[in-house]
Structure formats: structure tokens, C-alpha cells
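quick one
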Amino acid sequence: MKQTPETAFSHRHLLGIEGLSPIDITTILDLAGGYVDQSRRVHKTSDLLNGLTVINLFFENSTRTRTSFEAAAKRLGADVINMTVAASSIKKGETLIDTAMTLNAMHPDVLVVRHGNSGAVRLLSEKVDGAVINAGDGRHEHPTQALLDALTIRRRLGKIGGLTVAICGDVAHSRVARSNIQLLQTMGARVRLIAPPTLLPAKAERFGVEVFTDMREGLQDVDIVMMLRLQLERMQGAFVPSVREYFRFFGLDREKLSYAKPDALVMHPGPMNRGVEIDSELADDIDRSLIREQVEMGVAIRMACLDLLTRPLRETGAP
Ligand code: CP
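structure w/ phosphoric acid mono(formamide)ester:
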């Protein structure tokens, strides 16, 4: 078969952006474009994944990622099982691996997994027969978030390479930041990190980024301002003096945004804390904020990932 970008994707799992080439990323983004159109139709469902089973296994809370994986799988015709961890035998002490082996015995074709520990999703992927998609593991990676962010940027600005993107806020605890840094750099963008010193990872420059602790300096002439949620659930102790002070120095409002390019766009992966990370009115400004578009692109990206990862199974009948 001729190797077009669409047939070149050869990964068994999607565990992170690390290891994806520019062609892999472009393949996913190109394919997702068609799924945006499918999702905008009145009748959204196809039978591409008919007969396949997708299990959503979320050990941490989620609104966007879990729902959009469910919508994506159903729009492609798959059977979807949502496992509620709070009502599962994990609460009786069953281990992650025993849970994985139990679900594996039911022959799922894809497992979508979110877990609070970095590396847990990779560990699980080594124990099961189906494809595994990382829906966020600890502080490590959230690859489909970075892919949907990339699709949002590419659709609005026509490119990713050559742009300057500022990732601002709680970088230290953010898997979204890690996946985005890798994806944006792989696709030729320049990345800046802007955060108080307490919310920067140790030796942040090792990521090949520019690092700032002042929003006005860091936002100078950027194309995209990507805000991050303050991950209070991952903080032990006080990383910021108060949320009011945090907003004053690191929350995005129109005055700080004026240091970026005049038409700079604003993103946030959600869930957002209005008035903490971002001014509420700016978050809702459809001329500057891409936040709602990010959610829409999430379904299309997840459809593309499910499509690509199940191709070997659909084409040959074997994983
Ligand atoms: N952005 C994101 O992962 O949101 P959820 O936690 O709601 O899935």
C-alpha cells in the first residue's frame, strides 16, 4: 500500500506526545478535520467501529475528556462501556493490574485510561491486548489535549510552525503543559513558560523553552496565550499566597493580554477557575478566546485517534 500520511501511523497505543513524529501529528490533525465535519452534521454516526468495544476507565474526575471519548466512540459506531471507579471493586482494594486483567478478559478493543499516577497508563498498556489511550496520567502527559489544542490553533491560524505560544500558570503540576510543550516544539513553534517560581518545574529550561516569572515580559508579542488551571488537588501546602493575589499577578485579563500581539488568541484546557486564572469576560470573548472551540475539537481528535489505533484490527482482524 502506498504510504500516504494517513496510512503511516504505526503506533499500537497513544501514551504520550513523546515519540510522535511531525507526520504522526499531522496525520491525526488531518483526519480529525473530517470528523469535525461529521460532528457538525445532524446525523453524526457512522459504522466504522461497528462491533468494537471501547472501555473508558477514569480513576480521576473528568468532564470534557470522558464525555468526548464517549461521544467520539459512539459517533464511530463502537460499543462504549464507562467504568465508574467510585462504584468499582477498586474501592474494595483491587489493584490497577488486577483491574486491567479483569477488563482485558472481556476483550475490549480500546481502553481509554485516566489515572492520578504518572506512568500508570503505560504500566496498564503492558498488560492488556487492546490499544490504550492515555487520557491523562498524573503530571506526565495528556496527549489528546495537546492534539486538540493543535487542531484548534491550526484551524484558526492555518499553521503551528513559526508561532510563539506562552503557556502560563501552574506548569509544575500540569500534564497539559508537558504534552503541549512537546507537540508545539515538534511542529516548529516557540514555547515560553510564564509562572511564579513556585509553579515552575525544576530547571524548566531543560525543556528547550524560554522561562519568565512576569506576565507582561513573557507575553510580549506572543501569538497564543495558553492558560492553565491551578491544580490545587496536586498541591500539598501553599504554592500561591492567595487566589486573589495569584489573579493580580498571573491571571489573564485584557491589560496583560495587551502585551501580546494585537490579535493574540487565548486558550484554556478547562475546567477553568474564572477570576483566578482568567478574567471571566475575556474567557467568553469569542473574538479572542478559543475555549469553546477547543472542546469541539476534542471530539474530532478523539474520533481520529480511535480510527487510527483500530485500523490494524479492522484491516486484518488482529491487533
Ligand atoms: N481538559 C480536561 O482534561 O478536562 P477534564 O478534566 O474535564 O477532562
